[in-house]
Amino acid sequence: MTDTGTNGSGTRSWQGPSAPERLGILRRARSVAIVGASANPSRASYFVATYLLSSSPYDVYFVNPRAETILGRPAYDSLADLPVVPDIVDVFRRHDDLPGVAREAVSVGAKALWLQLGSWNEEAAQIAESAGLDVVMDRCLKIEHARFHGGLHLAGFNTGEITSRKQRIA
């Protein structure tokens, strides 16, 4: 049986931060490093990167040892190679890589480890939390940022329109 990131019994025991706590993480942050960033427009990390660059106040850095640039910006081999200590490490990596990324985030002094939708690894969470990092798992940084800043449509897209009327589906 493959480990799905649970506590071994098939259930999730880790409790993530509440919505106000997640908002606090986002408000305190000034920089985001996207580990596993991709230059491929069909990848989720690319979509998140374009959103963060265009619609957030964050300085965004890309970590991908196989890329030289992503969206016209340099890509770094590791978190240790970044020119800054990132506040949030946003991770797009395979399940088995997550504890190692958590260790690297701790090592560089990041403040938060953010595992994207579908990523849940209690070992990684324990590593990060034991070192004092905030941890968010199985949530999209883009969706959470847009949600808290009034630009989220049910499909996760910024509609550019603020209204209290229910949308009509044609």
TrEMBL record:
<dbReference type="InterPro" id="IPR003781">
    <property type="entry name" value="CoA-bd"/>
</dbReference>
<feature type="domain" description="CoA-binding">
    <location>
        <begin position="26"/>
        <end position="119"/>
    </location>
</feature>
<dbReference type="Pfam" id="PF13380">
    <property type="entry name" value="CoA_binding_2"/>
</dbReference>
<dbReference type="InterPro" id="IPR036291">
    <property type="entry name" value="NAD(P)-bd_dom_sf"/>
</dbReference>
<protein>
    <submittedName>
        <fullName>CoA-binding protein</fullName>
    </submittedName>
</protein>
